[in-house]
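tokens incoming
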């Protein structure tokens, strides 16, 4: 979020312009934080102190059907860090359409995911709109354990299930004019109230993008599951992008459209604050965010309560052997 847009509006008493629900959230959000934007929302996990009803609801939110015909890709069967506890990962999320703090898992249960279609369009020889089930059948599903690094300097290790993006690229055959891809997330203002800390309009739907050669790299992945099961809504059900060498905001959730284009597409955070959230956004410990260092990260692994260990951040999040040549 660019401070430039927010600052003038903050002069207006917030209770006059936000609903009570988001006014309350916003007060919590602002407490202890400076600035705004994705880098500012570092609220503690609310796991401890949850009622039994909340715990049951949380369990239902991640205890989903197992994915069938899932194989593990041996090249990505482990990293040198433990996999993050599933409960922690499923209640510490960024999904700004549903709120501006980390505890949006329950709000995200309002996301309607059935039926779901993904339109693949633009500069391709074979445009196609896939029903989600067709997509899952068209491309063999595999599990990959990837490091996950948020631009906010927290990190996890997550076992995603899905298929490499290059398989979709091969299926739709981009034309020679296609140089970029644009991902568009689902948006419906009826169920998605937004982060609550903004007073102006935000450029929904959430969009992200890649260069075509980045999308065709073996690491680029469409996830339809996590921990061997279908993707919970808070993680971006039913299909989201996972790009482990880039900051997490590049991985658009709940994708409805994949469009092949000639020019670099406009993307959500980049359009709001280009100096803070670049289009390429590769993990880089030597390039600080304007408001914090990226040299280390807060690695979240074990529950039940949120704790983190400070760890070194690696260039390309440790995936240089796969992707460094793209940026030579
Ligand atoms: N996609 C959409 N549609 N909306 C979002 O707010 N947040 C991004 C990314 N994808 C976001 C999104 C950011 S900032 C991060 S770090 C990751 O999702 C978080 O993914 P997770 O909640 O599954 O860990």
């Amino acid at each position: 979020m660019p401070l430039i847009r927010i600052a003038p509006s903050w002069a207006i008493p917030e209770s006059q312009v936000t609903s009570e629900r988001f006014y309350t959230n916003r007060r919590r959000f602002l407490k202890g934080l400076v600035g705004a934007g994705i880098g500012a929302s570092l609220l503690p996990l609310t796991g401890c102190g949850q009622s039994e009803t909340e715990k049951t609801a949380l369990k239902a939110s991640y205890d989903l059907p197992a994915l069938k015909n899932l194989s593990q890709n041996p090249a990505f069967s482990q990293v040198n860090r433990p996999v993050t506890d599933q409960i922690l990962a499923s209640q510490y999320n960024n999904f700004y359409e549903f709120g501006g703090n980390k505890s949006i898992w329950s709000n995200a249960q309002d996301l309607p995911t059935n039926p779901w279609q993904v339109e693949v369009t633009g500069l391709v020889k074979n445009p196609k709109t896939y029903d989600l089930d067709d997509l899952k059948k068209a491309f063999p599903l595999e599990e990959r354990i990837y490091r996950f690094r948020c631009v906010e300097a927290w990190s996890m290790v997550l076992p995603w299930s899905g298929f490499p993006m290059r398989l979709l690229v091969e299926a739709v055959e981009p034309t020679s004019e296609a140089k970029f891809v644009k991902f568009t997330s689902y948006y419906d203002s009826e169920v998605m109230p937004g982060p609550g800390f903004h007073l102006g309009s935000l450029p929904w739907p959430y969009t992200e993008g890649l260069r075509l050669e980045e999308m065709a790299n073996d690491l680029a992945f469409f996830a339809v599951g996590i921990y061997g099961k279908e993707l919970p809504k808070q993680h971006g059900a039913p299909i989201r992008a996972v790009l482990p060498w880039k900051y997490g905001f590049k991985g658009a959730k709940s994708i409805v459209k994949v469009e092949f284009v000639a020019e670099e597409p406009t993307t959500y955070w980049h359009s709001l604050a280009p100096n803070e959230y670049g289009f390429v956004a590769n993990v880089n410990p030597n390039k600080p965010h304007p408001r914090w260092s990226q040299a280390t990260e807060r690695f979240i692994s074990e529950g039940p309560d949120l704790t983190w260990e400070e760890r070194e951040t690696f260039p390309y999040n440790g995936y240089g052997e796969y992707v460094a040549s793209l940026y030579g």
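note: The CA atoms of residues 35 and 81 lie 31 Å apart.
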